[in-house]
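Dear colleague,

Thank you for sharing your sequence with our group. We've completed the structure prediction you requested, and as agreed, I am returning the results in plain text so they can be pasted directly into your records. Please verify that the sequence below matches your submission; if there's any discrepancy, let me know and we will rerun it promptly.
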Amino acid sequence: MEDKRVIDFYCKRCRKSLHISYGLTGDSQTPVLSNITLKCGCCTRTMVLKNFEEHHILEHMKDNKYYL
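Please find the predicted structure tokens below.
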């Protein structure tokens, strides 16, 4: 049975949750939330995810958290 892991996204500037989660598919070349705009509710920073793949997120996550 596959391991169903979920990655939570956090703001890199203020370290607050963006209230967005992504369930990993297991395919390292899968695009992640392509062309999605995220806005931090705390510091009003805006981020656009372009060309993100699962292997990039897996390499840079800490404790199932990914800081954008």
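Summary note from our side: The mean pLDDT is 91.

Kind regards,
the structure core
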